[in-house]
Automatic annotation (TrEMBL):
GO terms for molecular function: rRNA binding; structural constituent of ribosome. One of its GO terms (cellular component) is cytoplasm. This protein binds to 23S rRNA in the presence of protein L20. It comes from the Bacteria. Pfam families: Ribosomal_L21p. The gene is rplU. Keywords: Ribonucleoprotein, Ribosomal protein, RNA-binding, rRNA-binding. This is Large ribosomal subunit protein bL21. One of its GO terms (biological process) is translation. Belongs to the bacterial ribosomal protein bL21 family. Part of the 50S ribosomal subunit. Contacts protein L20.
Amino acid sequence: MVYAIVRAGGRQEKVSVGDIITVNRVKAEAGDSVDLAAVLLVDGDSVTTDAEKLSKVKVSAEVLGDLRGPKIVIQKYKNKTGYKKRQGHRQELTRLKITEIN
């Protein structure tokens, strides 16, 4: 089985061909192809971690579309001072489908 650990959106993801992953927003339109930087490659029994060899490895993904993550509610409160603050956040995300690992 061939799989790779790639750096995508500030995190590392384990991917193989056909996987669908969700990463932080990528500046690309739906249907475009993006390349991800490989950190580790496992091809059967051989494991590649050498940076020089990994620079030749190509992990391609197709952009399926953009979406937003779940709402996170941030609340701050200080006792006896009347200070209350409420804020929400939804992360911008992109869904990718891994098409090939060379």
